[in-house]
UniProtKB/TrEMBL annotation:
Protein name per its UniProtKB record: AGR2 protein
Taxonomic source organism: Pampusana beccarii
Gene Ontology annotations for the cellular component aspect, listed alphabetically: endoplasmic reticulum; extracellular region
The family this protein is said to belong to: Belongs to the AGR family.
Major location (coarse): endoplasmic reticulum
Keywords: Endoplasmic reticulum, Secreted, Signal
InterPro entries: AGR/TXD, Thioredoxin-like_sf
Extent of the signal sequence: 1-21
Pfam families: Thioredoxin_7 (PF13899)
Entry annotated with the keyword Secreted: yes
Amino acid sequence: AMEKSYVSVFLLLVAISCALAAKDAGKKEAKETKETTAKPKLPQTLSRGWGDQLIWTQTYEEALFRAKHSNKPLMIIHHLDDCPHSQALKKAFAENKDIQKLAEQFILLNLVYETTDKNLSPDGQYVPRILFIDPSLTVRADITGRYSNRLYAYEPSDISLLHSNMQKAQKLLKTEL
């Protein structure tokens, strides 16, 4: 009798563990299908709407590393999702074919949070602001927008100035390095 109860307890444990394994496998499958269907949205999360076909870096550290090793200038866009000025600039930036084409020549990073690097806020932490960093990892404080109180701010009407500043960031690169 004792042996029979051991066998039945053993079989019960086997049945439970099989049921749990099947349940886990089902969860895993559901999770995998969720992840695979969400995959095409991956670039969107990094671009945050600034140019979905562009290659964006995830972190400031990664961006610095890539700028240094690719010998390309880095363009950092500080913005906030709930800021109307950021949204307006993003729309102008994303819709401007020349900007999007030129942006391919840059290491790109857009941040919705402040970094601890004080060099990225030379005149304050406002949004939107765009800074350029050359491959020697020097912040180009000389490439500014048209506002004296927010040197690195751009508005949708400044998109051509931004384009020429992007060209300037590239020209300086070629002549100085």
